[in-house]
Amino acid sequence: MPDNKTLRDMHYQLVRIRLFEETIQKVYFEGKTPAFDIAAGTVPGEMHLAAGQEPVAVGVAAHLRPSDAVTATHRPHHIALAHGMDIRKLAAEIFGKETGLGHGKGGHMHLFDPATNFGCSGIIAEGMPTAVGHALAFKKQGRDDIAVSFFGEGAANQGAFHESLNLAALWRLGVVFVCEDNAWAISVPKDKATAIANNSDRAAAYGIPGVLVPDNDPVAIYEAAGEAVSRARRGGGPSLIEVKTDRLFGHFEGDAQAYRTPQELALLQERDAIRAFERRLIESADLTAKDAQDAWERARTEVDDAIDFARSSPYPEPSAALQHVFA
Ligand SMILES: Cc1ncc(C[n+]2csc(CCOP(=O)(O)OP(=O)(O)O)c2C)c(N)n1
């Protein structure tokens, strides 16, 4: 069980990430509506938000150091922020500004942060072999840093998943594979794409531990991740954690979600993991109602500051279009 300080830190992280995602959602639609135009507005292009999945990122990241490598997907903000990415640089990158992590050239799906060893990609399952590479390098350097790879349940059907688990197991590398099972790959439900209910069962095929966290509870995720991270750090090899989590919004912003019933969407809001966690902390006296409210207010200030920074930052100069890009 996390101590009181850890619980409070996790609560704050959950709250700030949720507010960040909700704020990006609002900003994203600026200039795009009433007739949705994906290319127009403050943040042109696609936007994949992770509201609902914050507990996975926060529960795992509570065990990590900035020197641990983290790889994520096209839905990366919760993981990036939980691992310590600078919120201003993240916002600026999303806005395509010069002050962003990649000078505004990567956008929200291609965040790279040397300060926290973080990378992500729009290519499904790409982060898994990359994490194996990080862990191999750490092992060769004699470091006890580890690599964590977050991916969706859809990605678990890619060849890269199997190749990565195989090599990480064979070479006993310090990797924690974290499957965020939000039950949907765009509009495809998991049971139309995968023959087994739990991807964690696949760990057995590689001789590594597979742990199922059946609900979206930050504490249960923290506990499962604690074991996997310490095993990886002490040279005990990789493990696979699967969390049944919730994607509260569409696959991308602008997705009408015709494949989900209004009842399902309402149920998701009702069982929101952050509100449930907050209620539990207040009931157990780990947090007062006032502390909870203060956390939301403090996070609001932090998020607003990041958005203001992004808004007021300059775009990259056209003459710099070919700088810092590789092909
Ligand atoms: C290699 C590859 N194949 C297909 C796609 C198109 N694509 C983008 S997101 C997505 C679904 C991913 O589902 P999942 O891994 O469950 O992640 P989630 O979106 O639920 O977070 C697909 C197929 C892609 N980006 N890369």
Give an overview in words.
- With 327 residues, the chain is an alpha/beta fold.
- Helices cover 41% and strands 11% of the residues.
- The chain contains 10 helices and 9 strands.
- The strands form 2 sheets. The protein has a 7-stranded mixed β-sheet with strand order 2-3-1-4-5-9-8, sandwiched between helices.
- The mean pLDDT is 97.
- Bound molecules: thiamine diphosphate (TPP).
- Thiamine diphosphate binds at residues 73-75, 122-124, 151-155, 182, 184-186, 251.
Keywords:
binds thiamine diphosphate, alpha/beta, 41% helix, globular, 327 residues, seven-stranded mixed β-sheet
Helix content: 40-55%
Radius of gyration: 19 Å
Percent in strands: 5-15%
Q: What's the overall average pLDDT, rounded?
A: 97
Largest sheet: 7 strands, mixed
Our count of helices gives: 10
* Cofactors, ions, other ligands: thiamine diphosphate
Distance between the termini: 47 Å
The spatial strand order of the largest sheet comes to: 2-3-1-4-5-9-8
Q: Please provide the count of β strands.
A: 9
H and E string: HHEHHEEHEHEEEEHEHHH
Secondary structural class? alpha/beta
Low-confidence region ranges: none
Task: Assign an overall shape.
Answer: globular
